[in-house]
Amino acid sequence: MRSFLLLSIAILGFWACTKESKPTVTITSPTNGSTMMSGDSLLTIKGTVADEDQLHEYTISLKNTTANTEVFTHSGHSHTTSINIDTTIVLKVSEHSEFELSIMASNHGGANTTEKVVFDKQP
């Protein structure tokens, strides 16, 4: 009986230590609901991707939802616990357009997280 109790405690302890973490994704620029004014053609994409264990990959995707076109994509592979994203792209439109920026991150456990922001761009 004592060995059964010790085995049960050991299994519960192992189970408690094997929780599955999910990556966190934070987008700080652009902000959700913001508007890029005419004449402003530089879009700065900033954010952080992190995981308490280890990241595997991340993808940045920018879609013009008005025209239903993908205008920018970037993927990266990492074995760190945190990545700072800071990139600038030229974004020009001929008509008022809505954009969706999404950043997806996955870890080595197979868990993934996606964060999205929506913003407008004036011609």
Give an account of the 3D structure:
The protein is mainly beta and 123 residues long. The chain has one domain: Immunoglobulin-like, CATH 2.60.40.2550. It has one helix at residues 2-17; strands at residues 24-29, 35-36, 42-50, 55-64, 69-77, 82-90, 97-107, 112-121. A five-stranded mixed sheet has the order 2-8-7-4-5, with no helix packed on it. A three-stranded antiparallel sheet has the order 1-3-6, with no helix packed on it. The longest helix has 16 residues, at 2-17. The termini are far apart.
Question: How are the SSEs placed, and which strands pair?
Answer:
Elements: H1 2-17, E1 24-29, E2 35-36, E3 42-50, E4 55-64, E5 69-77, E6 82-90, E7 97-107, E8 112-121
Parallel strand pairs: 2-8
Antiparallel strand pairs: 1-3, 3-6, 4-5, 4-7, 7-8
Elements, N to C (H/E): HEEEEEEEE
The name CATH uses for the topology is: Immunoglobulin-like
Number of domains: 1
Task: From the alpha carbons, calculate the radius of gyration and give it in angstroms.
Answer: 20 Å
CATH class equals Mainly Beta
Total number of beta strands: 8
CATH architecture: Sandwich
User: What is the 3D shape?
Assistant: elongated
| Poorly predicted residue ranges | none
Question: What portion of residues is helical?
Answer: 10-25%
- Order of strands side by side in the largest beta sheet? 2-8-7-4-5
Short description:
This protein is mainly beta and 123 residues long. The chain is built from 1 helix and 8 strands.
